[in-house]
């Protein structure tokens, strides 16, 4: 049974409103391509209204600005309770609108709740320093919110991205204007829950995404019973539509053939189907455009000489499904080894030495995440030190939490999310210096 669609308008100045133009756009169910709802289509006029409301909410004498930091945190804790109350509904809505398998959307919703509570705990931990300047002066720093923040959400994990960006900004004391992705506006529109908690948010809608071409290394000494499932999870999770997908899989030559055989068998066992069914492991791509883009990459892989061992085709004619796909004998110069596919495509490359594979792993403009499977601690430490990535996993993949800093090197993005310093991007640091009275 489809979840009820409660909110389809713009949320500006604590009110649900139609777009100034009166325009709407259709949002679709990627399982079958059917229209879910018509959502208000904001434009420049609506953005201006949202920004004006956010500026009023940030005025120095506004209710929001006059809150104590602890009160801000208390509001965010209440928001976490409200999301927990509606967790099942939000997970179902995410699956329905995004195509994310239900078990995955439930996990992401719970991760979001953990993030809200962690960020709420930071609200009253924002503090400056005293500065030991020379002379008869007293100097200190203040950390103050930057003001109105424009936050652009990607479509691949909308509810978690909404929480991570919006709640971080609010914990810092900012006000926000949010633009959900056109493909997945519905869970972001449930941000009305923040209004229930505090009445201090303004939502509006564009699209942004960090890139990755993450290398996962499988050494000869790796436990293949662990490495093969994790490597599959790393690239097939959420249909490959995650920025940290393990889309370059380097396997050492001594175990290459055995690993490839196991990877193909594992891919063939995956259950693909309706994402709202509890047994489904892989759902559809987000829309027809992305499905065709992924299929285009698969064709490019075949044309450039990669060996297609399983998958590679669309499933059925309804919805946007692609078979779990495994390529072997991929080389670094092939398109599927260089460009972000954002689909269920595992590209397996062979290597001989650790030093060689570190150089090959780093030969990309991306640097978001990386991983390695090995039983040799020195190998793990050397790889973790020298690979150019903001997140490195050893003998696991995709493990994370709000306490762990997240962000990329090179073209994979600027700044960091999560961790105790995640609010810094939303703060200005001000130095205040006071002349002390003459000594007694």
From TrEMBL:
The active site is at 209. Residues 16-189, 190-432 form the Aldehyde dehydrogenase domain. Pfam families: Aldedh. The keyword Oxidoreductase applies. The keyword Oxidoreductase applies. InterPro entries: Ald_DH/histidinol_DH, Ald_DH_C, Ald_DH_CS_CYS, Ald_DH_CS_GLU, Ald_DH_N, Aldehyde_DH_dom. This is Retinal dehydrogenase 1. It comes from Papilio machaon (Old World swallowtail butterfly).
């Amino acid at each position: 049974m489809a979840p009820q669609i409660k909110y389809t308008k713009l949320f500006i100045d604590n009110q649900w409103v139609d777009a100034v133009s009166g325009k709407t756009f259709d949002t679709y169910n990627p399982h079958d391509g059917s229209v879910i709802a018509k959502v208000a289509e904001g434009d420049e006029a609506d953005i201006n209204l949202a920004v004006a409301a956010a500026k009023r909410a940030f005025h120095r004498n506004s209710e929001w600005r006059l809150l104590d930091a602890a009160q801000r945190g208390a509001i965010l804790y209440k928001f976490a309770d409200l999301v927990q109350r509606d967790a099942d509904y939000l997970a179902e809505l995410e699956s329905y609108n995004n195509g994310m398998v239900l078990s995955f959307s439930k996990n992401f919703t719970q991760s979001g709740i953990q993030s809200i509570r962690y960020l709420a705990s930071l609200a009253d931990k924002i503090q400056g320093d005293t500065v030991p300047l020379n002379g008869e002066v007293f100097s200190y720093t203040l950390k103050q919110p930057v003001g109105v923040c424009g936050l652009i959400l990607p479509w691949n994990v909308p509810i978690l991205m909404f929480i991570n960006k919006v709640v971080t900004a609010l914990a810092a004391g900012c006000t926000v204007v949010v633009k959900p992705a056109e493909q997945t506006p519905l869970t972001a529109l449930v941000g009305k829950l923040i209004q229930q908690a505090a009445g201090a948010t303004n939502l509006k809608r564009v699209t942004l995404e960090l890139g990755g071409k993450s290398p996962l290394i499988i050494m000869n000494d790796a436990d293949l019973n662990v490495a093969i499932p994790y490597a599959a999870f790393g690239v097939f999770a959420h249909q490959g539509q995650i920025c940290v997908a393990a889309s370059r899989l380097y396997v050492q030559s001594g175990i290459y053939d055995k690993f490839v055989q196991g990877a193909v068998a594992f891919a063939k066992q995956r259950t693909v189907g309706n994402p709202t069914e509890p047994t489904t492991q892989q759902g559809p791509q987000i829309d027809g455009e992305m499905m065709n883009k992924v299929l285009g990459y698969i064709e490019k892989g075949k044309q450039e000489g990669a060996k297609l061992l399983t998958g590679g085709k669309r499933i059925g004619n309804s919805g946007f499904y692609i078979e779990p796909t495994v390529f072997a004998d991929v080389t670094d110069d092939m398109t599927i080894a260089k460009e972000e596919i954002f689909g269920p495509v595992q590209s397996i490359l062979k290597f001989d030495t650790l030093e060689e594979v570190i150089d090959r792993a780093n030969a990309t403009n991306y640097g978001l995440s990386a991983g390695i499977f090995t039983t040799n601690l020195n190998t793990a430490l050397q790889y973790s030190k020298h690979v150019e990535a903001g997140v490195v996993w050893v003998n696991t993949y995709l493990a994370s939490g709000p306490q762990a800093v997240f962000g990329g090197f090179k073209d994979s993005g600027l700044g960091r999310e999560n961790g105790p310093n995640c609010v810094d991007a939303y703060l200005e640091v001000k130095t205040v210096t006071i002349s002390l009275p003459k000594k007694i």
